[in-house]
Amino acid sequence: MHLIELYKSVQGESSFAGLPCIFVRLAGCNLRCAWCDSEYTFTGGKPYSADEIVAQIEGFAPCRLIEFTGGEPMLQSRELLPLMERLLAQNYTLMIETSGERPLVDVPKAVHKIVDVKCPGSGSAANSFRMENLEALTKNDEVKFVISHREDYDFARDFIRTHGLHEKAGQILLSPAFSKAPSLLRTTDNATLDPRVLVEWMMADGIDARLSLQIHKFIWEPIKKGV
C-alpha cells in the first residue's frame, strides 16, 4: 500500500471527535474538490507492507481507534480490505473516510464508514457519489456534507430527506467548508461559511443533523499537517 503518513493525534471530525486516534493516510485521489485541504496526498507516498503498517500501529499502543483516510483510501481497496479484517480480528475500532465514489459493499460491516457526499460547491467532484452505496450504509456509519454556501446546504437537506438517510446511517454531519489558504489564526474566520449561519439554517429547517467542525484546525494552526 502507498501511504502519505501514519501518526497518532485526536480525531478531528465525526462522532468520534476528540478521541485519540491513529491516522493511516493513503496516497492518491481521483476527485478534485474545490475546497480540498489534502492536495499533498494526490501523488507520491511510500510503499508499505501490511506487516509494516501493523507494526507501526502497534507502536502507538494503547490507542485502539484507527482511521483510514486519504486521498481516497478505497482506491487501494485490494490491499486495504484484508488489512481491515486483520485489524478487526485484533480488536481495533476502525473508521474509513471516503467519498463514496468507489463501491463500499465489501467494506466490513464493523468498520465505521464516514461517507462524504459531495455538494455542488465541491466543483468537479459534485455528483460523484455512487448511489448504490446507500444500501451499504449501516447504523455504524455517518454521512457528511461539506457546506460552502446556501446551494450546498439546500442540496444536503434535500438529499437527506429524499433518500431517508436517518433510516440508513447512524449520524448525519454538516461541516462548514474551510479556506484552502487559511491564516494562522485558530478561529472560524478561516471557514468559508460562518458556522453560525449554518446553524441558523439547520434550526430554521429543523434538520436532524450534527454540526461538525474540524476541531484539529482550532487546536493547532489550520495549515499544520500530521495532526
From TrEMBL:
Entry EC no(s): 4.3.99.3
Cofactor requirements of the protein: S-adenosyl-L-methionine; Mg(2+); [4Fe-4S] cluster
Residues given in the record as substrate binding sites: 10-12, 25, 69
Pfam families, per database record: Radical_SAM
Keywords from the named record: 4Fe-4S, Iron, Iron-sulfur, Lyase, Magnesium, Metal-binding, Queuosine biosynthesis, S-adenosyl-L-methionine
GO molecular function: 4 iron, 4 sulfur cluster binding; carbon-nitrogen lyase activity; magnesium ion binding; S-adenosyl-L-methionine binding
Residues annotated as binding Mg(2+): 38
Subunit: Homodimer.
Designated name of the protein: 7-carboxy-7-deazaguanine synthase
Organism: Tunturiibacter gelidiferens
Taxon lineage: Bacteria, Pseudomonadati, Acidobacteriota, Terriglobia, Terriglobales
Gene: queE
